[in-house]
Description:
The chain has 12 helices and 10 strands. It is an alpha/beta fold and 389 residues long. The chain has one domain: Aldolase class I (TIM Barrel, Alpha-Beta Barrel).
Amino acid sequence: MAFPEPQVSRNGNPSNSAPKGCTGSSCQEWTEPFNSFNSWKGLLYREHYEAILQGRFLPPIEVALDPTYTCNVDCIWCNSRRILKQEDLLGQTMSAEHMLRLVSFLADWGVRGFCFAGGGEPTLHPALWDALELVRDRGRQSAILTNGIEIDTDRRREIAVSTCRWIGVSLDAATPERYARIKGTRPENFDRVLENIRAMVEKVHRRDLRCEIAIKYLIHPSNSDQILAACELARNLGVSHFHARPAASENIEGLGERLDFPMEEINQQLEACLALQTPTFKTFGVRHKFTRTFNLEHGFSRCLAAPLAIQCGADGRVYLCIDWRGSPRHVLGMHWPEPEQILEFWGSPGHIEKLRAVQVEKCPRCTYGIYARQIENVIERDAMCLNFP
């Protein structure tokens, strides 16, 4: 049951070159092309790309695993609002026993990357640390997306840096006052997070661990003036990366607005961030997934890339894609009570039909949108002349 031919397809160009309509060095995303934020790495997934077009879904490369739908902050741009504001979802948490069984099943199935993130704060789940150790013991790689508030004990910090390939800490501000205002929490949590980062960085450096610690900065009109200051703070903390990208809003249930970004101010700061780089500190101002004004742009005609990952929610459901977690219309099936149930619907005719029914123009910003462009253009159209190195 293969996918039909595209009706409309637009060429994508994910790279460190300037986005459409953007000129000058102020639009450069990075200086080192071999980095984890460069979407050209999608071409490494050619086997998956070809299988998707044939209607044959392989075990996903990554799982986005949400341990809990509980959060200890209230960010003004939260893209999980549909989860945290729904009574039937808010507070849902996987049991420790089930999460560990789910990790074991996914590792045996062939999933390679385990990203603990989600519609809540993953570090609020007491069994997260056991899950991280289990992933490592099964020969897979982990990552955490976190606000960093609860990585506040030596045991948690030790497990985090010794098991994770990377840790992304969402800081999003450069001062305690701004941090408290945009994240809906106490100002003192800002310094608490900085101390947690310092402690993890010290462990990484002392033991020469591979774990990359990144400070994440979601750009929003309410914090766009502090990008450079946050980048300077990141460098002083000794982290590996400073990663800035715009907050999403369009087509997200509970938000839906189109943000007006002060682009000149933003681009000037991102350019200055590049100048702060050292051999061990790199900055990334990601632009290639958006318009030149940081707004929604898909650039592909069909939902093709979603099967690269599996979205396992804290509510026991598996969702069609990462960007539709918590949406009843996008439930594929259940991973609870038996994780093996996933095999009954993954790649089934029903799964394929759900993908084919997606109306891309109604989707929020697509995490894997560049990969969908690559499938349409590189695999289907052979736009890069595969057989001619």
